Amino acid sequence: MAVPILDLKAQHATIRDEVVAAMMRVVDDQAFILGDPVGQLECKVAGLSQVRFAVGCANGTDAILLALRALGVGPGDEVIAPPFTFFATAGAIHNVGARPVFVDIDPRTYNVDPAAVAAAITPRTRAVIAVDLFGQMAPIERVTAAAGGLPVIEDAAQSIGASRTIGGRTVMAGEAAAIGTFSFFPSKNLGGYGDGGMAVTQDEALYEALVKLRTHGSRRTYYHELVGYNSRLDALQAAVLGAKLPHLAGWSAARRANAAAYDAAFADLPELATPFVDPANTSIYNQYTLRTPRRDALKAHLAARGIGTAVYYPLPLHLQPCFAYLGYQAGACPESERAAGEVLSIPVFPELTVAQRDEVIDAVRAFFTS
Ligand SMILES: *Cc1c(COP(=O)(O)O)cnc(C)c1O
User: Fold this and answer.
1) Is the CB of 59 under 6 A from ligand 1?
2) Fewer CB within 10 Å of terminal CB in the chain, N or C?
3) 282-136-78 Cα angle (round to 5)
């Protein structure tokens, strides 16, 4: 039995009528750019994230870019970020003209190490980006403390609906940062039928800046207060996402159930580490990421049995060719580099059947026990 890493067709089959009806309302309306579906989705995502404001935009990369611009980050500034993340986190820093400063991760959660953030602050630092990797929040309150008054952007592209208990209160992904950012790329937990993104904030001035920046720096048509972007969420995507959002909590619970089954099934394998979730966190398991020094052999073994896996991420950003100009050498972020050589994500998507899950479990166990 083949088991893909993700099965979007299986999910679509369960919601086809709702999604198609929502899309056809937009088609019949012929209002494709922003408009009611976008405003409604912004309200719902703001509610889910427990924030006052949400601004839809073209994709999760742009959400980070708009956030940096809204915070006034530009040429000559440094922005601290972890290198063990999707490229967009640092690409956005570069593309606003600022300099990425990479700091290492906590090897258990793969999220940024707050002590490393504190140690990297210079007079040029203008912001810090914390990434909520694989579905669990970074220790946002500790990153904020380490940032010492500098604004924190929370790249929650992989973690919409994840939460963390801070001082007895449930804090949602994106809520506690100056600006939180989401991606609706199809493989994210809330995925559109195309690209999409959103930024959330509690701060009205930042909200106004984000709204301006996504439409060429203009609030009043043809009058431009600053040079922004064409980065809007289109109504078709917002309609799809609005139809999918009521299912998100159930899908995340199904991912957690798959993760719990894997945790139990692999607990006795000494050469294999299952994901560590900080006890304060509730993960939405955008990925279920195993760790073993025999990663490449395990990946090949699973591929031979028809099981889809993925390496997120094989080369940390400080060692990417495009960032050679920053001058990092191998060894600069040792935990990120070690993780890059040992991680392997296996299928955890909500529609995974018990038979498929058992197939994955059998195949992983066979690799380590035979
Ligand atoms: C997916 C992702 C992004 C970018 O989102 P897009 O919608 O693909 O532009 C940014 N950061 C992280 C951590 C991501 O996983």
Assistant:
1) yes
2) C
3) 145
